From TrEMBL, chains A, B:
Protein family per UniProt: Belongs to the short-chain dehydrogenases/reductases (SDR) family.
Keywords: Oxidoreductase
InterPro entries (alphabetical): NAD(P)-bd_dom_sf, SDR_DHRS6-like, SDR_fam
Transmembrane feature ranges: none
Protein name in the entry: Short-chain dehydrogenase
GO MF annotations, alphabetized: oxidoreductase activity
Record CDD domains: Lin1944_like_SDR_c
Amino acid sequence: MKILLIGANGKLGTAVHEALAARGHEIVTVGRTGGDLQYDITVAAQVTELYDRAGQIDAVVSAAGDVPYKPVTEMTPEDYTSAFHGKVLSQIDLVRQGVARIAERGSFTLISGVLAHEPIPTSSAASMANGALEAFVRAAAIEIAPQRINAISPTVFTESLAEYGDFFPGVPPVPVADVAQTYVRSVEGGQTGQVYAL
Amino acid sequence: MKILLIGANGKLGTAVHEALAARGHEIVTVGRTGGDLQYDITVAAQVTELYDRAGQIDAVVSAAGDVPYKPVTEMTPEDYTSAFHGKVLSQIDLVRQGVARIAERGSFTLISGVLAHEPIPTSSAASMANGALEAFVRAAAIEIAPQRINAISPTVFTESLAEYGDFFPGVPPVPVADVAQTYVRSVEGGQTGQVYAL
């Protein structure tokens, strides 16, 4: 398949790239500042340009999402709006504009995260964004069939424990390679409307 | 308790008003165009004014949220943004600004809805908003204790079947009075971070 990979330069994006390439897929990497194509998916017009430029695509996979972390009482409306634009509306736009662009039986695989269901202090914007994304995926799935859409919802990566482990005390981490395999499962499998939590 | 009731004029708000008043609480009703106090909670500055005006409050309960319904492919970024402002950011703002205003052991009870988990065609913005709200509630709960926060997530009301029943074929409806009792449960009970689905 020809697969558009958004957020290709991060720790997760790199692993997803490897996992999908190992399955023989043709990957077109997209990033704000790196990758085969450089676009900012938080801007709707850039998503349009991205699809124009990418040509025929079988699957869109996203590993991109930015959200702020602060206590609820220090958050501003702009912080929540930033999380909404940075992780929710941006990924929704890949779907909204992508339905008419990708293959008839193509798929979208978006990124959520454990904080939707297992919050940590300071995660209210991240949790909000992940909960929004997961509910959108369930809703979009029943409209866009036979195209498919799933979300990947990982916990903290084993490879990120040094950096983020203190925020997830006692939480079993997941190797990023396992998360990447779940993207393969979503892209090549038959399920839709799923939130793959791991 | 002195309770601020947002969205007091709707079908649900009216029932919540009755249920809380029957329990002996003092209710201050808030609406855009009706109620004891008239404010639009989608505007942060009006939420500030609302709290200034309301004085000491023990609990905030919300039955207010507006979202657009359209197929995914007919939605615009503005539609999703409208849902975010109309149901998510507005209710988040009640909490964000309310934490410093309401009683030390006060509570927030917000409105979500069944579409977070059981979508219908055209509900992607509503589902997104409800999922966002529920995840926010779980996240905020662990930060604001001993203040509490819960969400009420009702299915279609028995009283709304004539209007909306065709959108929920075969779905068991719930009497709005039962939903209102769940607000009583949230306000007077001890739980926090809960999504009461009914």
